[in-house]
Amino acid sequence: MPSFSPLSSFRGSGRTPQPRFIPVPTERAIVDCAVYVDGKRLPGRFTHKQALARVRDEATGFVWVGLHDPDPTQMADIAATFGLHQLAVDNALQKHQRPKLERYDDLLMLVLRTVTYVEHEMDTVSEIVETGEIVVCTGRDFVVAVRHGEHSGLAEVRKALEEDPAQLALGPGAVLHAIIDRIVGSYIEVAQSVENDIDEMEEQTFTPRSKVTVESIYQLKREVVELRRAVNPLAAPLELLSHNPDLPVPKEVRRYLRDVSERHTGVAERINDFDEALSALISAALAKVTVQQNTDMRKISAWVAIAAVPTMIAGIYGMNFEHMPELKQVWGYPAVWLVILVICTGLLITFRRNKWL
């Protein structure tokens, strides 16, 4: 976002100070910018304008620019250089979008949701899945990748592609495929971690005398819902990219995208299964809590019944009547205690035999 100076200007006495905004150069938002010709990265450092000019002057290769959380001014500079459609710029700046694919003439814009797994304790209610975004705009001779979030870096993707010149020589479409492949791979990794959590939670739920925290199951279910919202909508864009020959995607890249689409379908089905498993787990946990409450109520009722015997006898002999049986007998007091102990012991034995205590 645009930074501003701590100094402020005043527009008159007593007015609220107005912060003086200072534009941040576009290069501050650029993580990496490179020119690729015949699958190889050209040596040297380029600004985004120099890189595009180099490619178009020589009419070969393409530019790959990666940006992290650009502000509107920086994104407007990128758009002016690469000729991005205003709607693509708006999508690149907007956060928390659903995955989608848009086409503006020869420009493709793909919105991807990124996910990462957060290590946590099973008995605590905490965030389990963090999400971010990557917006990829591809043209005939450029790729502009805009990412939001701290866990969505593409340095490994770039490095892997640079080690495979034959794949990188396919052009911007190869970069688009590599980014999608990396994102879908992260979906599979996160799904495996979440599945391990569900297995552990199932074991805790069905272990006798274990303490079940229903809130933690609800939290995991909420995280699975967020994961499903990030993963499932990508199915439609992948279907278009891998099967629509009218899109500006090389035929060879479409073959790779079909494989990614199949992997995505598999992980989406797994996540749907997670949702159903957690729904069943919630029902089982609530049933276990209900059984535990019923057991506690039986114990409480048994002890109340035992305590009612001495309370009743003491209440009777606490009445202020002159003529009461055994009131003046020497053995009356110990006899009352003996009756109380016999009755309470009999109730205790009965309740234990019936497993109420």
UniProtKB/TrEMBL annotation:
Keywords: Cell membrane, Membrane, Transmembrane, Transmembrane helix, Transport. It comes from Nocardia amamiensis. The lineage of its organism: Bacteria, Bacillati, Actinomycetota, Actinomycetes, Mycobacteriales. Residues 1-21 are annotated as: Disordered. Residues 1-11 have a biased composition (Polar residues). This is Magnesium and cobalt transport protein CorA. Belongs to the CorA metal ion transporter (MIT) (TC 1.A.35) family. The chain crosses the membrane at residues 300-319, 331-351. It comes from the Bacteria. It holds the Pfam family CorA. It is a multi-pass membrane protein. InterPro entries: CorA_cytoplasmic_dom, CorA_TM1_TM2, MgTranspt_CorA/ZnTranspt_ZntB. PANTHER family: CORA FAMILY METAL ION TRANSPORTER (EUROFUNG) (PTHR46494:SF1). The keyword 4Fe-4S does not apply. SUPFAM superfamilies: CorA soluble domain-like (SSF143865), Magnesium transport protein CorA, transmembrane region (SSF144083). CDD domains: MtCorA-like. The keyword Membrane applies. It is found in: Cell membrane.
